[in-house]
């Protein structure tokens, strides 16, 4: 089998479970949104109010997951078992520290967040309770993010997929029991999600500890690599964290401006944003596989193979996102009806989905380059592009559209499309002008 065929087979075989994992993770949110959506617009708004803040909370563990992906995959490709063992011991410590810190902070701030998000007075209490409950198992969500990424880095994408499938199925059952069976409404949805997150994280941790590739794991043992590896992980994670914080803070500001346009408009906007998510998840699935293969190729010093991974990742991701964009355009209205019983909300949300459908290929292009850069640990360029585009394009334009010109939701979504398109073009230009491998090692000739 030649390198082209070998890389294509690896990329597809690793991507399929990861795509399914992404889709199933999104279904966890979809189930909440759909079931709560049928309770009315206020219930939907209560759940949606803190969604962007929840994304912001997830940025810290996922940023460190990017660092562990790059370093564990590189060590795996080089066959350095000692380094892998040291990295995974460090991962355990980071899960405990980050998980406990985020739990305390999130629960403590839960009463204020709906106020900061400019939620309507009649939904603030529900939104606060919902957020506090889903933040209780934060340490388990951190474990799922970091341990799951370490497992993916050694070319095992099936295990995290199985965990997410179990978590999703449990959430469906608990939602049905608590939301409708016990008539707990929004609170029931929160409890169902919290239990699912907790058990899912516990299962991921158990499977992580059983992986023979990671060697014998002990929390209290301090290896010779610990300090150096922490610096290495942090050097990759900090720009990734900056990217996530800038991005999520932008989403918070974006959502806050839309929430001020009224409950019906915000409900349509929030449901449409969630409904769109499943259509770009295939790109994120390929991104994870790409990062793993890039890191492994670096560890193996397979430079020809590395070039092939880059090329095929871009072609496959963009092609797939063209297909998902077309599907989103064609299924916009029936998809909205799944999540809401309001005809007005469904029609407005469908119009927004048809607008954003045309930008899906650009989104795929951006995601492909992100996967390549993350595999190299080249996170600074992504931070620069994201920062400028989010605040200089999306937020600035949305501010004028909403606060100055007092235009509608359609124009707000045009701002979102402009942001996605700009990021794709800018990141492509930056990566072609100075390939990420130049930052990794100057003496590699490509």
Shape: globular
Cα distance spanning the termini: 23 Å
Radius of gyration, CA atoms, in whole angstroms: 21 Å
SS summary, helix count: 17
Please report which band the strand proportion falls in: under 5%, 5-15%, 15-25%, 25-35%, 35-45% or over 45%. Answer: under 5%
Number of domains: 1
The average pLDDT is 87
SSE class: mainly alpha
Low-confidence stretches are 442-446
H/E series: HHHHHHHHHHHHHHHHH
* Fraction of helical residues: over 70%
Task: Describe this structure as you would to a colleague.
- With 446 residues, this protein is mostly helical.
- It has one domain.
- Helices cover 85% and strands 0% of the residues.
- The protein contains 17 helices and no strands.
- The protein has helices spanning 3-37, 41-48, 51-78, 81-109, 113-116, 124-135, 138-153, 158-181, 185-209, 226-259, 263-300, 303-339, 343-357, 360-376, 380-404, 409-433, 436-440.
- The radius of gyration is 21 Å and the shape is globular.
- Mean pLDDT is 87; it is low at 442-446.
């Amino acid at each position: 089998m030649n390198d082209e065929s070998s890389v294509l087979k690896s990329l597809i075989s690793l991507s399929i479970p990861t795509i399914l994992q992404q889709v199933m993770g999104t279904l966890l949110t979809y189930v909440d949104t759909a079931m709560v959506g049928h309770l009315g617009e206020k219930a939907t708004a209560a759940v949606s109010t803190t969604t962007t803040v929840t994304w912001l909370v997830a940025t810290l563990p996922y940023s460190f997951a990017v660092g562990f992906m790059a370093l564990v995959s590189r060590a795996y490709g080089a066959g350095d078992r000692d380094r892998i063992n040291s990295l995974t011991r460090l991962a355990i410590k980071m899960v405990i520290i980050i998980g406990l810190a985020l739990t305390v902070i999130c629960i403590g701030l839960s009463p204020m967040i709906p106020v900061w998000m400019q939620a309507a007075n009649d939904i603030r209490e529900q939104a606060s309770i919902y957020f506090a409950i889903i933040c209780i198992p934060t340490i388990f969500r951190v474990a799922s993010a970091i341990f799951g990424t370490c497992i993916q880095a050694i070319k095992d994408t099936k295990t995290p997929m199985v965990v997410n499938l179990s978590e999703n199925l449990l959430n469906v059952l608990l939602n049905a029991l608590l939301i409708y069976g016990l008539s707990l409404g929004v609170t029931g949805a929160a409890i169902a999600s919290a239990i699912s997150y907790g058990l899912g994280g516990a299962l991921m941790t158990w499977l992580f500890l059983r992986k023979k590739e990671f060697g014998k794991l002990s929390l209290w043992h301090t290896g010779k690599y610990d300090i150096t590896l922490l610096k290495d992980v942090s050097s990759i994670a900090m720009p990734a964290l900056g990217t996530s914080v800038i991005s999520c803070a932008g989403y918070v500001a974006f959502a806050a401006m839309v929430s001020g346009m009224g409950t019906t408009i915000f409900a349509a906007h929030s449901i449409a944003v969630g409904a769109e998510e499943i259509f770009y998840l295939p790109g994120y699935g390929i991104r994870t596989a790409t990062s793993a293969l890039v890191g492994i190729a670096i560890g193996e010093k397979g430079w020809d193979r590395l070039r092939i991974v880059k090329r095929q990742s871009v072609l496959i991701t963009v092609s797939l996102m063209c297909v998902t964009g077309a599907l989103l355009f064609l299924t916009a209205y029936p998809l909205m009806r799944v999540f809401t019983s309001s005809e007005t909300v469904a029609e407005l949300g469908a119009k927004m989905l048809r607008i954003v459908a045309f930008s899906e290929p650009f989104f795929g292009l951006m995601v492909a380059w992100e996967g390549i850069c993350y595999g190299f640990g080249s996170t600074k360029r992504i931070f620069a592009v994201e920062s400028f585009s989010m605040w200089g394009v999306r937020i600035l334009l949305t501010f004028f559209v909403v606060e100055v010109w007092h235009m509608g939701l359609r124009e707000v979504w045009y701002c979102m499309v402009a942001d996605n398109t700009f990021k794709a073009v800018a990141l492509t230009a930056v990566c072609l002008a100075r390939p990420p491998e130049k930052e990794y090692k100057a003496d590699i000739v490509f």
